[in-house]
Amino acid sequence: MRKVLLWPMGMALVFATTLALAANTPCSGSKGGIARCQGDLFLCNDGSISGSKKRCPAYLGGGSGVPSAQRFSSDGGSCSCSSGTFCTGPRGGVYCLTPSGNKSYRRK
Question: Within the chain, where are the H helices?
């Protein structure tokens, strides 16, 4: 009678599952996770916006698939990330201000 070893196949399954779980997600690491959606962007728990190219409503399982409009301000003081208002810098970068006062740039 022949014995079949299932251990190597089981280890391959565990390894593949571990790799899938190790993939980066929006707002991972020091950003502390996703706080909420700000239009199509991810607002992270540290107050910054994620550089992810994924769309927040689609990623979190909601939304209609239609991109939402973002509000822009010419006044640098009213561009907080939590307000959903973005400013445009002198070289065309779009950013918002984190609670600590740092600029968090929106990815193109």
Answer: 7-21, 56-59
The residue assigned the tokens 């607002």 is 43
Torsion, Cα 52 55 33 74, to 10 degrees, reads 80
- Single-letter code of the amino acid located at 27: C
Rounded to whole angstroms, how far apart are CA atoms 38 and 57? 9
Among residues 52, 63, 44, which one has the least CA distance to residue 107? Answer: 52
Report if pTM > 0.90: no
Instruction: Classify residue 28: in a domain, yes or no.
Output: yes
User: What confidence tens digit (pLDDT) does each residue in 28-81 have?
Assistant: 888 889 988 888 888 898 988 888 888 888 888 875 544 444 566 665 557 888
Alpha-carbon distance of 90 to 44, in angstroms, equals 25
Owning domain of residue 43: 24-105
